[in-house]
Design brief:
Arc Repressor Mutant, subunit A
């Protein structure tokens, strides 16, 4: 608490009130910054809840800026009445104060497994379990990600049983969609390149590239221009044009040559 007097000298009013609430209590690591975060974020209509939030920060229950923001958002939703009662249990649930038990996660995952059971039975282990992960997050946003993933894996295994030989094979349906998508992308790219090329005649496609820097985008553009010209039996003209030639390293020139060859 040796730094508190200095903070009070420069602190905004809300921070002074928060520090007065702290008194002589020892602050957990990072709590000072969280008190400052609280002081500058809290809205006037919920400023009367400052002591409550300060106590939670000092106790280490609101131990991140994300949780402090969640607490402010929750209190704003309650309204602007000074004498409004705060449901502490609900408050702690919304702000990530209350620990989420493995039983809570398991119960919710089981419920979601039943919700998706038809799709699960059809797709089995090819089912995209991230859908369930996302829905768990919507209900238990403070749940530990690793615990949720483990619970989903266990419940899917309990529901479907061990993997069969068919489950171990790649999903042909997904592969077909992927191939179709890639073919479509390639076709669209060719159309775009044909439209943007400088010339296209009986002798093939003619493109050109002005190299102005050794950036990744320039390298990619060189590859595309030369690759497109080669694919259609044409030629590509490369003119190196830089305003600071004296500082260019030789490896850049040789790199372009190696790339083209």
């Amino acid at each position: 608490m040796g730094h508190v007097p200095l903070l009070i000298m420069v602190a905004p009013k809300n921070l002074q009130l928060a520090l007065a609430e702290v008194g002589g209590s020892d602050l957990p690591e990072g709590a000072g910054m969280l008190l400052y975060h609280l002081a500058i974020k809290i809205k006037p209509q919920i400023a009367d809840h400052l002591p409550l939030l300060t106590r939670y920060i000092v106790a280490g229950k609101l131990n991140s800026a994300m949780k402090v923001d969640a607490s402010l958002e929750y209190l704003l939703k309650l309204g602007q009445k000074i004498d409004i009662n705060v449901d502490i249990e609900q408050f702690e649930h919304e702000c990530g104060v209350k620990d989420i038990t493995p039983e809570e996660i398991e119960k919710l995952v089981q419920k979601l497994i039943q919700k998706h059971k038809e799709t699960l039975l059809e797709q089995r282990y090819h089912f995209n379990s991230s859908k369930i992960m996302q829905e768990v997050r919507e209900h238990l946003k403070w749940a530990d990600g690793k615990s949720v993933k483990a619970a989903i894996d266990v419940e899917i295994f309990d529901f479907l049983g061990p993997k069969t030989e068919k489950d171990l094979k790649p999903s042909t349906k997904s592969d077909k969609k992927k191939d179709k998508s890639e073919a479509s992308d390639k076709g669209d790219s060719n159309k775009s390149l044909k439209k943007d090329s400088n010339m296209e005649n009986d002798e093939g496609a003619h493109t050109h590239r002005l190299s102005s820097s050794n950036s990744f985008t320039s390298g990619s553009a060189i590859n595309i221009n030369f690759g497109y010209a080669a694919a259609y039996g044409g030629i590509c003209y490369l003119r190196y044009d830089d305003t600071n030639l004296g500082k260019e390293e030789e490896k850049f020139f040789t790199g372009i040559r190696d790339m083209v060859e």
